Amino acid sequence: MALNDQSTDQALLDAEHELWTTSFSYIKSMAVKAALDLGLADAIDHHGGAATLPQIVDKVKVHPSKVPCLRRLMRVLTVSGVFSIQQRQNVVPPAIAKGNGAATANGNGAATSNGNGVATANGNSTTTTNGTGVATSNGNSTTTTNGNGAATTNCTDTAVEPLYALTPVSRLLVGSRNLVSMMSMILDPTFVTPFLGIGAWFEHALPDPCIFRQQHGVALWKMAEKDPAFDALINDAMVSDSSFIMEIAIRECGEVFQGVTSLMDVAGGLGAASQVISKAFPGMECTVVDLGHVVAKAPTGTAVKYVVGDMFESVPPADAVFIKVRLDVFRLANF
Ligand SMILES: C[S@@+](CC[C@H](N)C(=O)[O-])C[C@H]1O[C@@H](n2cnc3c(N)ncnc32)[C@H](O)[C@@H]1O
Fold this sequence. Notes:
By secondary structure, the chain is α/β, with parallel strands linked by helices. It folds into three domains: 3-86 and 163-173, Orthogonal Bundle (Arc Repressor Mutant, subunit A); 96-154; 189-332, Vaccinia Virus protein VP39 (Rossmann fold). The chain is 39% helix and 19% strand. The protein is built from 15 helices and 15 strands. The protein has helices at 9-23, 26-38, 40-46, 53-59, 67-79, 168-171, 180-186, 189-192, 198-201, 211-216, 220-226, 228-253, 272-280, 292-295, 328-332; strands spanning 50-52, 83-86, 96-97, 102-106, 110-113, 118-122, 126-129, 134-138, 142-145, 150-154, 163-166, 262-266, 285-290, 305-308, 320-322. The strands form four sheets. A four-stranded parallel β-sheet has the order 3-5-7-9, with no helix packed on it. A four-stranded parallel β-sheet has the order 4-6-8-10, with no helix packed on it. α3 (40-46) packs across α4. It is extended. It starts with 8 loop residues before the first helix and ends with a helix. The structure holds S-adenosylmethionine. Residues 198-324 form the O-methyltransferase C-terminal domain. Residues 20-89 form the O-methyltransferase dimerisation domain. One of its GO terms (biological process) is methylation. This is O-methyltransferase ZRP4. Keywords: Methyltransferase, S-adenosyl-L-methionine, Transferase.
């Protein structure tokens, strides 16, 4: 017997809703990717942290024909908490009846009756009747009847111009210390597409290629060595992540580094974590060990030393060995 045979219709609809929501949950991350690609947070930041759609459009590359679509993207991003919406007050005019008709505006909506029609606007909607029709708009909609017809619109896109504001989430995407590089890496197709192959990956016996190699035919670090743009994508991401998280880590649990005189940051990338540790503990000798192509791009003239090495062969000696791994994406994919 199928599990759903005895379910009520409401339970079936709830279950279907859950299935749709879960299956479509990538829409949220793709909306964040679009926000990064377009620079939406920067555009809002440029206007002091809150901006209307026309103000945002002014700062980003959007074809004029796609402006209404951008409003939809903003809706996804506000529902996800990346931005918030502040409604402007009283920007829509009240009800106007020019003929024998009746116009009623409830809320911030505008209702206009130009003939004998009845126009009602509820919420932030705009309603116009030009003949003897009946038009009602609810929510953020616009409705017009020109003849004798009746029209009702619920919640479409045109109405009061909302102000889109930065939230604590999108504030992490602006300013000099931001997480744009990290999120750009996570959402890069090179990292996203391997996850489409998890099902196929389970069909093969271990040991087998990780999902990254299954997708791309080459290991992640090998690809980084061969492709400078991909290498930069990873290194920049790590610098933004490590700078952000290590400053918090030092503030919250810096005592774990007390008394350490030398520290070996294994697979430390460009050494952003070590740079933060070294500044917080100037007496500590911090060394980063990483692969040759990464060390070749390491910053010079800092207190942190960089050495080339393969951690699977040997790790140079030090008081403490430090390895920062916080990416579930790397662990899950067994990169
Ligand atoms: C996810 S990044 C982490 C970088 C750094 N720990 C951080 O969190 O900012 C992983 C690093 O491991 C390095 N790596 C990969 N295989 C390695 C190996 N066999 N020996 C040393 N480093 C390695 C990569 O070059 C890369 O810089």
